[in-house]
Structures are given as structure tokens and as C-alpha cells.
# Entry
Amino acid sequence: MFASALAGKRVSLDKVQSIMVGLESGEASPLAWRLMEQGIDFFMTVPDSVVPDCMRLLASSPYGDPPIVAGESAVAGLAGLLYLLDNPALRTKLELDSTSSILLFGTEADTDPDLYYKFVGMSADQVRRRADFAEHRISDSGPASIS
# Structure
């Protein structure tokens, strides 16, 4: 997709390699390209090196949210967002500020359990058990009251 955005037209690449295997595509689908070409103003790539940190961030849930099992391809959007938030010039260019609403999609869990364990330091089942515990802890506290 990025190569097509740079070229301004749909192009094919001979070889694409990434640990984000679900995103390894040498060619954008015709339908996807037609939609993206008309509605996307900004494209970026995400290096493989940031993937493990993003997977660990979602699994550890340091901000009190339930832990999330996200595989290598699922964290590309989060990695891109974290990069943008850490880059004031790009934040300004994209008009990202405290009033922005951002929606990220992560559509892959632990498709490679061994790689997941290597990157996160625990199995996806361990993360899911932590998520189940967090969910029960939230629901056991009863409904929130408004004073």
C-alpha cells in the first residue's frame, strides 16, 4: 500500500518480508486501493523493531485496561500512533491533539504462539487469564453510581 501511495497508483512489489506476516503483501487489492486512494491523506510504514514493545504494552495493560492479546500484525496501528504522538511536527501536520478521537483496529491474536511468547514473555493464555480476572474485578465492584 505504501509503495502505491508513493507512486500515486497501484503497484506490485516482488518481495515483502516482515514479522507482521499478516501485512506481508506485495500488492494492494484493487478494491482496497480504490478506497484508500480516495480517502487517505497520510500513509506511513512501521518497522518490525517496534512490534514486540507494542505487543507487550497491550498484554501488560499499564493504564488499568484489561490486557489484550494482540499478534504481530495487530499492533501496526498502535505502533504508528505512538510514533506520531512522539513527533510534534507530524502531530501538528495531522492536527492530532487532546480533542482527537482515534480508532485502531487489531484483527489478530496469537497466530504464532511461540513468537508471541518470545516477544511478550508470557503465553497468550496467561494474558487472557489476566484479562478475565480484570473483567471479573470490574464487574464484581457493581454498577457505578452517579452522585
Helices lie at 2-7, 30-39, 51-60, 76-85, 88-93, 113-120, 124-140. DSSP finds seven helices and no strands in the chain. The CA atoms of residues 42 and 94 lie 8 Å apart.
